[in-house]
Amino acid sequence: xxxxxxxxxxxxxxxxxxxxxxxxxxxxxxxxxxxxxxxxxxxxxxxxxxxxxxxxxxxxxxxxxxxxxxxxxxxxxxxxxxxxxxxxxxxxxxxxxxxxxxxxxxxxxxxxxxxxxxxxxxxxxxxxxxxxxxxxxxxxxxxxxxxxxxxxxxxxxxxxxxxxxxxxxxxxxxxxxxxxxxxxxxxxxxxxxxxxxxxxxxxxxxxxxxxxxxxxxxxxxxxxxxxxxxxxxxxxxxxxxxxxxxxxxxxxxxxxxxxxxxxxxxxxxxxxxxxxxxxxxxxxxxxxxxxxxxxxxxxxxxxxxxxxxxxxxxxxxxxxxxxxxxxxxxxxxxxxxxxxxxxxxxxxxxxxxxxxxxxxxxxxxxx
Length: 367
Ligand SMILES: [Ca+2]
Ligand SMILES: [Ca+2]
Ligand SMILES: [Ca+2]
Ligand SMILES: [Ca+2]
Description:
Membrane topology: Single-pass membrane protein
CATH architecture of the largest domain: Sandwich
Pfam family, one: Cadherin
Distance between the termini: 124 Å
Number of domains: 3
Helix content: under 10%
Shape: rod-shaped
CATH superfamily of the largest domain: Cadherins
Number of strands: 26
Number of helices: 4
Order of helices and strands: HEEEEEEEEEEEEEEEEEEHEEEEHEEHEE
Strand order of the largest sheet: 9-17-16-12-13
Bound molecules: calcium ion
Structural class: mainly beta
Keywords: Calcium, Glycoprotein, Membrane, Repeat, Signal, Transmembrane, Transmembrane helix
Radius of gyration: 44 Å
Signal peptide: 1-20
Protein name: Cadherin domain-containing protein
C-alpha cells in the first residue's frame, strides 16, 4: 500500500516536459575471430541525453562520446557466446547491450591423448577390429566429419595393413592384411581427425600398434637327418651340438630337446645343448659288426625339439652315428666338427646347421 501511494505521488508530480523512463535492449552480433578494435555497433543518440557504462565487459569497449561499441581484446565463442552490458542514460533510461559472439571454425579437433597403445595378436584374421578413442571438436557448431589413417613410418602414406571402420560415432581400426609378428612386430600409425568446417581443420594422434606373438613356428633344425662319425676315444661323450631355432618369441620360441628313442644309450646334456652318449659300451656293441670301422653299423637316434608354447610345437632330427675307433677312423675324423650331412633330406638349396663346436656351416645341395 505504501509503495502504491509513492507511485501515485511520482505520477502526480511528474514535470510536464519530462521524458518518460525507458528500458530497451540493443542486440549486436560479432564473429569471434574479429580483430581487436573493430567497431561492432553504435547506439543512436537521443537529443539531450548522456550515456555512461554501468556494467561492462573486459573484451568490449563502449565510447560514451561516440556511442560506438568495439572489441578491446580477442573474443572466444567457446568460452563466452553472449556478452551482456548495461548502459545508463541521463535523463534516466536503461539500455541492455546484448552482443552475440558467433562461432567460427577456429579450433582443431582434439584427442583426449596424443598417443594410443594397441595390441593385436598376429593371428588376428582379416576384419579384426580394435576400438579407438576418437576426437571431439571444441567448436560449438562443428563436428568430426572424417578420420584417416596414415603410416607414420612410410612418410605419411596411407596405411595398407590397417583400415578404419566407423559406426554410430565410434571408430575402429581394422586388420585388412595378414599380420606376421616374425616379419614386423610393431607399427606406428597416425589417426587424423578432420572437422566439417570450411575450410576444415585437422589434428592427429599417434597409434603404437604392437603385434603379439602366437606360437605359429615349429622349432627348426634346418635339416631332417645327419650322419656323424663318432670316436669315443677322441670325442669324449659329445656327439652333436643341438642348435635348432624357433622364430617365435619368449616361451613360444624356447626349445627343449629330448631323445625320442635309444635313450638308454643317448641323452641330452643338462644345459640342453649337446647330444651325449651315456653308454659308450652299449653303443659300440650295438654298432659293431667287424673291427673294420667302415663297416660298422650306424645307430640312429631321433631328437625331438619342443618349444614351450601352448600347445607346444615339435620337430625331429634323425642323427645316424657311426662309431669309429681305429687310426684310420681317427684320421678320417680328425676334423670331427665337419659332420657328414645327409643332404637327401634338405629341402632348400642352402641351409644352416651347427657343427660340433657350434660354428655355423653352410650346406650345399648335391643333386
Ligand atoms: Ca573445429
Ligand atoms: Ca569456434
Ligand atoms: Ca614356436
Ligand atoms: Ca609367432
